[in-house]
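Quick start: what a row looks like.
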Amino acid sequence: MRSVRPVNDYLLYEALETAHRVTTVGTYAAALYDYFSFLEAHGLAWDEIPPLGSIVPTHLARYRDWSADLRDTFGEPRLKPRTINLYLRACGRFYAWAGRTGRISVVPQAVRTRFDSTRSTGPTPTARRELLLNTGKARFTVLSTTEIGNFMLALSDEQEHAMAAIAFDTGLRRIEIQSFPEALVFDPISRGLSPAKRIPILIEPMGIGAADEPIMATKNGRERRVTMSFEVMRLLFEFRAFGQRVPREKAYYARYNAHPRRLFLSPQGKPLSQRYLNKVFERGSKRSGVRVHPHKARHAFATHYLHHRSKLIPLGQAALELKELLGHGSLSSTQVYIDALHELTTAEFDRHNEMIDALIGREKRK
């Protein structure tokens, strides 16, 4: 896509004159890149705006419908409604800014803005509600033990298998898995731990490595305690002591003259790219025919945990435990899994009757 001066000016405004974080401005940039790519592909001009009252759909409405129709190789929506709405709101902010700064004389009627009023206060510029998609209640598919097993067996690479094992076993976020520190890995057998008990682990930021890579990057820098199964900890120990980690550690040392503090590295001894784990799950999905992404593995862990813990303790108490394990800032974020318990059938959960660590730790990969 060719560079568009008003977009560059707008992003510079958001970066320098507002209190938004870099990640927020990055989201605006991604949304506008997607929107303007759509405009360019369809021969549309961003500042070509139908007059008020016109029955001609706005570019934003056409972009919304086009985005909702996109499908991946599995025939499922490529973008979630929430993501599309996020992009539409970002585009609405851009159009509101363009109207305020005189880049356009008319703001699309789908954009809510305080700049078209003489009032000094008003709602935040965004896309109007009637433009947005109806997201409804969050609903996600519960993966069966067989599906998880088929996915794991499709990961023939030792490191990829270990990273996916962490995702299903602990519910850690993608960036937490990629920046997982080797200092947390040990041999549970030599410590005399019981295979029947899960191992508590403190997740907290641990500074910066020799290649300027963050070690255990948590959301908003918060620390929390999670638990890991005996089998997965043993899997990680063998990977670190005898597996792919050994030559990659040597490559890292040769490159940076320091020992790596992250557990997972590229074959060249470099820190992993930001999208590495996404690509791992994409490859596993294609090979196994089971569509999984890192956050879906987190969903699998959460629903599995909440279902089984709620059989032992009150549901509210189990939800509070899950909130802490997932690192949610408030219980409202965990509510989606409570809702899932009411929506999903017992049969769907019965497919989770085996512990995930028994599958990924004890079964031999072919």
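That is the whole record. The CA atoms of residues 38 and 62 lie 9 Å apart. The longest strand covers residues 199-203.
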